[in-house]
Predict the structure.
Amino acid sequence: MKQQRPITPDNAYLRLATLCARSEQAEGDLRKKLRDWSIAPSDASAIIARLKQERYLDNERYARAYCRDKLRFNGWGRTKIAFMLRSKGIEQEFIDTALAEIDDDQYTAILNEALEAKSRTLTHKDWQQARAALLRFAASRGFEPALFYPAVSRLMPGNDDD
């Protein structure tokens, strides 16, 4: 295995600035990279401060971009997005701001499309098992029960007379 040269704080800054210029990054993820590169904590703090000062790094901007992308491309709900942002060390006020920007009509449409697509793949013969599978699916995607229970009921009304 090839011996790697240690990364200097200046090189670490340049690498992270390049990375941040290409895509939004979370501060926690960058700090982890700096630890992996064996950068001293004092140097790591200075690098992070410089990235913030030069506007390469902005946790609020990251939260907004993450929220938009995970909703649009992954079909995640607010609960899962908030959980993942918290796990990346994003401040709660930034999470709340990003989630507040979600259009409710678009959000509901994404939930309904995901449920309809999932319902077409279900092979359960029993309607109760199929309904339970849809409820689990919506919950695993991070949608709120107050939204997905009525949506599942509209999609798959109960057969109480059986």
Observations:
- The CA atoms of residues 45 and 111 lie 40 Å apart.
- The mean pLDDT is 93.
